[in-house]
Write a structure and sequence with these properties.
4 strands; Cyt_c-like_dom_sf; transmembrane helix; 308 residues; single chain; two-stranded antiparallel sheet; 11 helices; membrane; transmembrane; 2 domains; Cytochrome Bc1 Complex, Chain D, domain 2; two-stranded antiparallel ribbon; mainly alpha; binds heme C
Length: 308
């Protein structure tokens, strides 16, 4: 009795699930979800080839220095880089004295306390400081940016899929909104104060195009021309470095470990061959039940004159 009730309850659940499945499928077929502007107009990042790509990749220090210059002269007006300290820049090839000078001349000062009065004050940055944020806090940052918050850029290239290429595409992707989009999705018209950019997830970005003209940043002689495209590439390479400054060490460790494992595999295989070479060809007498052993014992008994 109890058992049949159990089966009935189970069957009822399965039936309800089945019904809801078919209802769901028929609803989906009769009124499919409306396409959205994001679905149709969002683009994946463009291709960006950097020296640090691939398992053997190494940073192009010259490019990182240019990228740092773009960050310093353009992006740092709005974006913090809170996980990077000035002395980290030595990895880009700057000398200790150059880093000191960069810190000393940084446009924002570091919050501090006046030692004489105890009042809040600011002081010049030191090599050991991290990059000071451009705004005192989130409220100030939003107030200056149309209520949008410029995110910290330290880990940006890790936080987005294909980060280096994403930042590059975003910086070079500002464009007028396609007329076709507005025609098809009137409600998706770029609101005032936002900027159309098909590489941004929801297509409209609060950041005004930061790189707009060739020569916005002056590169030292011997560097490529500072076109918008070049500056965007360079600052993207720099942000790949800030997000993973130990990338070269990681690559080197990976290669060393792979070589070691390959070597260990070869040694292991040779040891295996060495041990089994003779073992497999030798026939062993393995115990009293082995016919060869029985023959032997029979012979020994016969020799000793023992019967049976
Ligand atoms: C005038 C201020 C300003 C400047 C200058 C600026 N940005 Fe932005 N940035 C913003 C704001 C505001 C946002 C937030 C946008 C949003 O959430 O819609 C943002 C967002 C971003 C994002 C994040 C996009 C995402 O996927 O969330 C990246 C990356 C970025 N900026 C890179 C840069 C780089 C690189 C530079 C320098 C070349 C730069 N920005 C210069 C204001 C600025």
């Amino acid at each position: 009795m109890l058992r049949s009730i159990k089966y009935l309850v189970g069957a009822a659940f399965a039936g309800v699930l089945l019904i809801s499945f078919f209802v769901g499928v028929s609803n989906y077929l009769s009124s499919p979800p409306a396409p959205t502007a994001e679905e149709e107009f969002h683009k994946h990042p463009k291709h960006l080839a950097l020296a640090s790509d691939g398992p053997l990749g190494r940073f192009d220090r010259q490019q990182l220095q240019r990228g740092f210059q773009v960050y310093k002269e353009v992006c740092s007006a709005c974006h913090s880089l809170s996980l990077v300290a000035f002395h980290d820049l030595e990895a880009l090839g700057y000398s200790e004295a150059e880093v000191k000078a960069i810190a000393n001349q940084w446009q924002t000062e570091v919050p501090s306390v006046n030692p004489e009065t105890g009042e809040p004050a600011t002081r010049k940055a030191l090599s050991s400081d991290r990059f000071p944020a451009p705004y005192a806090n989130e409220v100030a940052a939003r107030a200056a940016n149309n209520n949008a918050l410029p995110p910290d850029l330290s880990l940006m290239t890790k936080a987005r899929h294909d980060g280096g290429a994403y930042v590059y595409s975003l910086l070079t992707g500002f464009q007028p909104q396609p007329a076709e989009l507005v025609k098809k999705f009137p409600s998706a018209k770029t609101p005032n104060g936002l900027h159309y950019n098909p590489y941004f997830a929801n297509l409209n970005l609060a950041m005004p195009p930061p790189l707009t003209s060739e020569g916005q940043v002056t590169y030292a002689p011997g560097n490529p021309k500072p076109t918008v495209d070049q500056m965007a590439k360079d600052v993207s390479a720099f942000l790949v470095w800030t997000a993973e400054p130990k990338l070269e060490q990681r690559h080197a460790t990976g290669i060393a470990v792979s070589i070691f494992l390959l070597f260990a595999t070869i040694l292991g295989y040779l040891a295996y061959q060495n041990i089994w070479r003779t073992e497999k060809s030798v026939v062993r007498e393995t115990g009293v039940l082995d016919p060869k052993n029985q023959a032997k014992t029979a012979r020994a008994r016969g020799k000793a004159g023992i019967q049976g």
